[in-house]
Every structure is written in C-alpha cells, then in structure tokens.
Amino acid sequence: MEFFDCHASYGPTYTRTLLELPDPQALIAQMERVGIGKALVYHGAAVRGYPLEANQRLITELAPYPQLVPAWVLLPPQTGEWDLESFPGEMKASGVRALWAFPGDHRYLLNKVTMGPVLEELVARKIPLFLKKDWELIYSVLADFPELVLVATGHGPWGRDRYFRPLLEQYPNFYIDTANYELDWGLEALCAKYGHERILFGTATPDRTMGGPLLTLLHAPISCEAKEAIASGNLERILGEVKL
User: In CATH, what number does 4-240 get?
Assistant: First the structure.
C-alpha cells in the first residue's frame, strides 16, 4: 500500500513542534522510517516568515526529491503579493497543484470581499485549498464557494465530528485529513456513512509524528479498497483533476 501524506512541512516553525525538520532530507528520513512514499509539502517559513520567498525556496529545495510534492501558501491580491492573472501559470511551471491558507498568521480575512476572485479561480480550476481547523471560517468559505475543493486538516477526535459531518453532508468537494483522527471505530463509522472518497491520509508532521496516523489507518476495520483510497488514491485523484 502506498502512502501519500497530504499534510506535512519542514523548515523553521517559530513554535515548538514534536520534530525538528530543518530541511527536506530530515522529512524524508521520517517518511522512510515509517514507510510513507510521498508527501504534499509546504515550507514552514511560509507561515511566520515571508510566504512568497518561502514558496520559491520550496521549489528549489524540493527539486532533487520527486517524492516531495510542493504546495504553496497563498496571500490576498490587494497588496500586489499575489497576482491573480499569473499565479495559475506559475503554479503549473513549478509543479504546484495545491494551496494552503493561513489568514490569521498573515493578517487578512479569507472571505468573499478579500479573496473572492482568488477563490473563484480555485473553484474553476479545481485547485484544492488546505485549511487548519477553524470551523467558523470553513463554514463561511464554503457557504460562499460551495464548489471549492477544501481540505480541513488537523482536527481531532472526541466530538469534532459534530463540526465536520454537516460539511460532508452538504458539500461534495469538502475533505478531511486523518492527522489527529485517532478514534476507535472512527474511520469505520465515517466510511460507513459517507464513503471513503473524501478522507485523506495526513500526519501534520512536524507538529505530530507520522506513525500514529499510519497505524490508525492500517488497523482500521475498513476494506482494503477504502484503505488504499485514503492512503493515497483520493489525494492522487484530487491533484490529477487540477486544471492549470
């Protein structure tokens, strides 16, 4: 079974994490230790540093490592840092097919007023947007852009289903990752009710270690077909549908 981690990063974090992954080699070492073949990766410096510079560093630093797939961190267009006309071509040239947003860290509102044209472009091109667990924000964005491919990451067990199950029911392009979803019978219950097609394997490395989410999926009482789809197939499909 091939594992494709949808939620990983390396580089400076500015906050304490479980692992120190200063460079791609350190991330690959963790992947090899547990048996993860590929990872969708953003640069840690893009969160608390300068995103555009970190995005370009990411492309250069990942070039020797085909098992690491780049994901950029976006910014609002009003300041001239994110060019609405050129970014699809730049993504295509750099092999980028997914974006992250950290509006709190970057001091903007991820809404229709600020990001409307950008989000409309993401919808039209089926570019997935990854967001960490800010449920009010996620509900608001999907209410305005119901066709957006949006992945909610880093949520946990013990009742968080009450946040994301309504979204699974309402929005066909809404996905969750498995990074913190270490809940007995949790994956089985989700697959039984909603299917396995909208669950992505993720680890939240370096905030968490990779072994827990991998072990949870391997031992989940679900079909081999479901495990393979969650482990890599669903993410491969999403990235394959991007139009650049």
Answer: 3.20.20.140
Residue corresponding to tokens 């909610």? 152
Reported as half-sphere exposure (CB side, CA atoms, 13 A), residue 85 has a value of: 1
Max intra-chain CA distance, the chain: 49
Q: Please give the model's pTM, rounded to 2 decimal places.
A: 0.95
Backbone angles phi, psi at 25, to 5 degrees: -60, -40
pLDDT digits (tens, 9 = 90+) for 173-207: 999 999 888 777 789 999 999 999 999 999 999 98
Angle between helix axes 135-144 and 161-170 (nearest 10 degrees) is 10
Q: What is the pLDDT of residues 60-94, one digit of tens each?
A: 999 999 999 999 999 999 999 999 999 999 999 99
**Alpha carbon distance 60, 217 (integer Å):** 32
* Host H or E run for residue 230: none
Which tokens sit at 145? 């852009």
Cβ burial 139-161 (10 Å sphere, 16+ → b, else e): eebbeebeebbbbbbbbeeeebb
Tell me whether residue 4 is exposed, middle or buried, using C-beta atoms within 10 angstroms of its C-beta: 0 to 12, 13 to 18, 19 or more. buried
Of the candidates 225, 126, 127, 226, which has an alpha carbon nearest to the alpha carbon of residue 178? 226
CA distance 187 to 82: 37
The domains of the chain are located at: 4-240
